[in-house]
Design brief:
- It is built from four helices and three strands.
- It is globular and about 40 Å long.
- It has helices at about 5-10, 25-30, 35-50, 85-95; strands spanning about 60-65, 70-80, 80-85.
- It has one domain (about 5-95).
């Protein structure tokens, strides 16, 4: 069974065109199917909540791109300063907030 993660959705892949079986990771971990609509909704809601609410509560945070085999730091915030290390990924993250 092949799985999809939130970062694959973020890479602008069309989740509607993907085989529904890829969205059933919840069946293995929780014993039930998670509808792909819920996965997509939760992913976008989590991004928005992080950007609009949670990041302001933290003294320091890190944003990583982890759809590939290795994690790549995209941005971080520390000492009141935002540092963007990978502008295209950061712009994709921020631009997708609606």
């Amino acid at each position: 069974m092949e799985f999809i993660n939130a970062d694959e959705i973020a890479k602008e892949l069309n989740p509607e065109a993907m085989d529904h079986e890829k969205f059933n990771a919840g069946k293995i971990f929780r014993g039930h199917d998670i509808p792909k609509e819920d996965i997509i909704r939760r992913y976008y809601r989590s991004r928005k909540l992080f950007y609009e609410q949670y990041k302001a509560m933290a003294d320091r945070w890190f944003l990583f791109f982890n759809a590939d085999d290795e994690f790549e730091e995209v941005a971080n915030f520390a000492d009141g300063e935002l540092t963007v290390l990978h502008e295209p990924y950061y712009n994709t993250f921020v631009g997708g907030l609606q």
